[in-house]
Amino acid sequence: MSQKIIRVAGPAAQACDMGASFMGEVVKLGAMGLIGEVIRIEEDIATIQVYEDTTGLMPGDPVERSGEEFSVELGPGLLGGIYDGVQRPLGLLASGWGNFISRGAQVPRLDRSAKWDFHPIVAPGQMVTGGGELGHVLETALIIHKIMVPHGVSGEVAKVFPGKRTITEPVVELRDGTRLFMRQKWNIRKPRPVHKRLPSTRPLVTGQRVIDSLFPIALGGAGIIPGGFGSGKTVLEQTIAKHSEARIIVYIGCGERGNEMADTLEQLRELTDPGTGRPLMERTILIANTSNMPVAAREASIYTGVTIAEYYRDMGYDVVALADSTSRWAEALREISSRMEEIPGEEGYPPYLAGRLGAFYERAGKVTVAGRQETGSLTIIGAVSPPGGDFSEPVTQASLRMASTFWGLDSQLAYQRHFPAINWRTSFSLTHRAMSRWFTENVGDKWPTMIAKTQAILQREEELEEIAQIVGADSMEEKERAALEAGRIIREGYLRQSAVHPVDVCCPLPRQMKTLETILGFISAMTAAVGRGALLEDIITSPLVERLLRLKEAPPEGLEPLMESLREEYRTFFDSLEEK
Amino acid sequence: MSRSIVTEYQTVDAVKGPLIFVRGIKGISYGELATVTTGPETSMLGQVIEISDKFAALQVFGPTRGISPATARVRFHGEPIEMSLSPLILGRMFKGDGAPMDGAPPLIPAHRRDISGAAINPVRRELPRDFMMTGVSAIDGLNTLARGQKLPIFSGAGLPANELANLIINNAGLAGEGGRFALVFAGMGITGREADYFYNSFHQSGAIERSVVFLNLAGDPVIERFITPRLALTAAEYLAFDLDFHVLVALTDMTNYCNALREISSAREEIPGRRGYPGYMYTDLAGLYERAGRIKGKPGSITQIPILTMPDDDITHPIADLTGYITEGQIVLDRDLNRKGIFPPINALPSLSRLMDHAIGADSTREDHRQLADQLYMLYARGVEQRRVASIIGEEGLTEADRGFVRFADRFEKDFIHQGESRRDLEQTLAAGWALLEGMEDRDLVRVSREMINKYRPERGDDGLDEDKQT
Ligand SMILES: Nc1ncnc2c1ncn2[C@@H]1O[C@H](COP(=O)(O)OP(=O)(O)O)[C@@H](O)[C@H]1O
Ligand SMILES: [Mg+2]
Asked: Which of A7, B22, B107, B297 has the most CB within a 10 Å radius?
């Protein structure tokens, strides 16, 4: 073995005598055995992206080739876990190496000692192919984990081993002697194959009113959340992790704060699934490669996360992968690229930035899974952190071209503490139309009209705001001021939603429908009354307005009668105005 | 990693800005510390920032002017930059490179630690939840600080950031923690006058005995600023996680630190990111700011108050921007408020404490805290907006209701944000907030619940004493 390090610069190293290596090969560097991946080979010199801090490496240090591609380990035991960007379990690192992340720690990705009760669904003599189901184990109280035939493998089942097994014991043996295990490996940079991609016609219900009502994201869609610091990206991602109707969540903390990961972990351990009372962590996997952890592992983290997400999609689940923040991934890419002395593109990012981002979001989708007649979906939602909050920068622009849903966060709204600070003027959902049938069938016939009405009110408010800034609201007609008031009621009473209020934090779709109906009913009545000459002042000083705005905070018990009586009262109220 | 044989080279090839290139080296590792001797009495420290089988690139922490490749000698230490630590570090003052500047001898080390630190494993982090009172209404009331938080002050040239930092240090630190409080102060490129200001104030308050001070003054080597905060944070980690202190770390001025980074980067001819700052500045700053927090099972904590000067008061400038993306909020100072004589001139709207929700509430501060803060924010934001409109169309163009919001904004700045040199406890802060809501229309008070209004809002002319409240 004569492979040796010849150069070290930050997260990149070069080694000689590497002609026999291949792109993506895992290597170990130096006496500590730091993990790296080969990302360029020129003649016999390989450039290696090193997943750990390179301090202490020196020219002449040995490089050990593994002969394997960089991959994640997939199998039962993933759920509930928290891993770094290259899938090292952080819990295990902590128990072995203490409070600080240390280098050269070699730990198994999945627990080798845990026993899983394997329930086979195949029998000897049966033919199986890649993606086919061999059986399942109950991974957590919330999730059945399907054990699938690794892609590329097929044959006739010879032996089946039901019952309690570890992931290193075979569960099925094929006629040709191939042994199949509950774990498999997959190269993180390669999308897992699917049978067929399907159009998505139903939304991922998030429980966030502004999203589900105005800018819904499709199951299998790709959404982005760009916003300056403090505009609410992380809170929105966390809220979706907690309250959306996904079966599996993969939350990727990519180059962000350590405390946020600790917070996410804690919340998901405490919050329970309403149906079963089990902690939400049992349906969740966290990838935490915080801003001060190695940059190269940050680059890998989104792929590690999305590969795990695809694996659960392949079991037939609706999976949501949340990445916070993709900009930090792009910066990691830029740093590695610059250490490799590649020719930079816009703002120093490598020219292949857009291509890589595109390939990442393309891994989202609703699909028929490979090898079985089942559908699954992977929805990807990426936060974007544009420098200076300026959306014209390369990462936001490249992401924008890939996204089917765009939730643009607005710092001005955040300053007013209007959360979620999703700007209703700039945000969009390209798949909204494709989902309208689902909404009509599942929420109500009137839903599309109500949404159009809501949008019209906001639009009108915006136009009038502009006029008010020129002529002053004081000189506007009563009718116009009523339209301004209508906009305010929609914003305050409907769009704004608190992530810390116990009730308001999640608003199920039926409730969104009823709340909006009550609010729009009031607005129509108000507009009509003003049209007939009622004074706006008399309406907006009524305590009814305040009750309308507080509707979203009312506990679910007794909500129905509360809304009914509110509607009753405002009808009476407007009638009484009439008589005056 | 350390070698027993220290290697010295006289093969300096080139000197470029703060960088020195050494040829023909062997057995030198990435990140290693070096001493560069440039004359009979002069030497300075450097660090290997790139290494190959042919050369090593050193970033040196002193002035390279006058260095001659012909005479310079470079000695490699075989280990990264480390510092000595012992309990006797409290009360000491060091220069920006860690040399004692108080006349006392160097510390006899009980420990030596790599100053670049290591990342706290996220699963070992304990969320900061303890309310830390600063005595400043705009912070305690609206952007509450938690012990273990990193909360920077975004200042502008000539704005009283130091005075505010000083207030926080005196109130939050000394008042709260009894004997377990320690202060770590790192000055980077600050003026002698600023250094004296802090020094005198720490003296007066007695904090000096519980402080560790690192000073790189404006005239000191620029590149030294690269290590000053790392020394400070290594000392802080030792005090917090070995000796169980609650440590408050003040880092000022981060703008000077970032400019040092820019200088190194341009000397390396790296492709610059925004406004000439290196593309890795986010990661570099995160390596400092993330060294705040708490660790499970440990009583100590590190709270960070970095101070930075926004060039041109521009919050989108990379230094402020990247800081805001890493820290747990920011306290933003405002020139207009300062001009109006408001102290501290904190602009509440862009200010934020991300850990506030963890640190407040019925069990730690008061049940109405969150709601009251939200309500004040909403009214103030509307007032500021209407003030802007009025500046275009004139006050007369506003409706009476909108004029009410403008009046609210004025009162908010004058009676709530402004407090001069005085210190308000939490009760006083919350009372000042509720007093502002007096006389506002109920329909504009939807961010506070009815129940809280009835309980806490003073009636018109209320003297603050409990009275039967009518609804
Ligand atoms: N839906 C929400 N409800 C209440 N507060 C919110 C909400 N979203 C954001 N916030 C507030 O804004 C702060 C910043 O949000 P965060 O998601 O951390 O921003 P970003 O990730 O964009 O920097 C949070 O600490 C919280 O105080
Ligand atoms: Mg965030």
From this structure: B22
In chain B, which residues have their Cβ closer than 8 Å to the Cβ of A473? 397-399, 402
Residue with the smallest CA separation from ligand 1 atom 24 is B354
Report whether residue A494 contacts ligand 1, using a CB cutoff of 6 Å.
no
- Which structure tokens are listed for A116? 């899983």
Query: Quick one: CATH architecture of A4-69?
Result: Beta Barrel (2.40)
- List chain A residues with CB under 8 Å of B381: 415-417
CA B343 to chain centre: 19
Report which of B323, B3, B285, B346 is spatially closest to residue B142, judged by C-alpha positions: B346
Is A348 part of the contact surface with chain B (CB cutoff 8 Å)? yes
- Tokens describing residue A578: 């009439």
In B159-198, beta strands by DSSP E: 181-190
Interface of A with B in 99-138 (CB under 8 A): 99-102
Q: Select the residue from B7, B25, B30, B129 to test the A interface by mutation, using most A Cβ atoms within 10 A.
A: B30
Residues around the ion ligand 2 (C-beta < 5 A): A 233-234
pLDDT (tens digit, 0 to 9) for every residue of chain A, 580 residues total? 589 999 999 899 999 999 999 999 999 999 999 999 999 999 999 999 999 999 999 999 999 999 999 999 999 999 999 999 999 999 999 999 999 998 888 899 999 999 999 999 999 999 999 999 999 999 999 999 999 999 999 999 999 999 999 999 999 999 999 999 999 999 999 999 999 999 989 999 999 999 999 999 999 999 999 999 999 999 999 999 999 999 999 999 999 999 999 999 999 999 998 888 999 999 999 999 999 999 999 999 999 999 999 999 999 999 999 999 999 999 999 999 988 889 999 999 999 999 999 999 999 999 999 999 999 999 999 999 999 999 999 999 999 999 999 999 999 999 989 999 999 999 999 998 899 999 999 999 999 999 999 999 999 999 999 998 888 888 889 999 999 999 999 999 999 999 999 999 999 999 999 999 999 999 999 999 999 999 998 998 888 998 999 999 999 999 999 999 999 999 999 998 866 5
Statement: B7-80 belongs to CATH 3.90.1750.10:
no
* Pairwise CA distance, residues A223 & A218, whole Å: 9
Q: A352 to chain B, minimum CA–CA distance in Å?
A: 17
Hey, is A270 helix, strand or coil? helix
ipTM for the predicted complex comes to 0.93
Radius of gyration of chain B (CA): 25
The verdict on whether omega for the bond into residue B253 sits within 30 degrees of 0, i.e. cis, is yes
Ligand 1 atom with minimal separation from the A498 CA: 3
* Pick from A103, A107, A77: nearest CA to A92: A107
Distance from the Cα of A135 to chain B's closest Cα (Å) equals 33
Ligand number with the minimum distance to the CA of B354: 1
Residue A500 has its nearest CB partner, among B30, B126, B357, at B357
Write out chain A residues lying below 8 Å of B313, CB-based: none
Q: Nearest to residue A409, comparing CAs of A387, A430, A385, A379?
A: A385
Q: Which CATH number fits domain B83-358: 3.40.50.12240, 1.25.40.340, 3.90.180.10, 2.40.30.260?
A: 3.40.50.12240
Query: Residue A39 is encoded by which pair of tokens?
Result: 């990302």
Model-wide pTM > 0.90? yes
Q: Whole-angstrom Cα distance, residue A525 to residue A502?
A: 31
Q: Which ligand 1 atom is the nearest neighbour of the CA of A414?
A: 12
All structural domains of chain B with their residue ranges: 7-80, 83-358, 369-460
Q: How far is B201 from chain A (nearest CA, A)?
A: 32
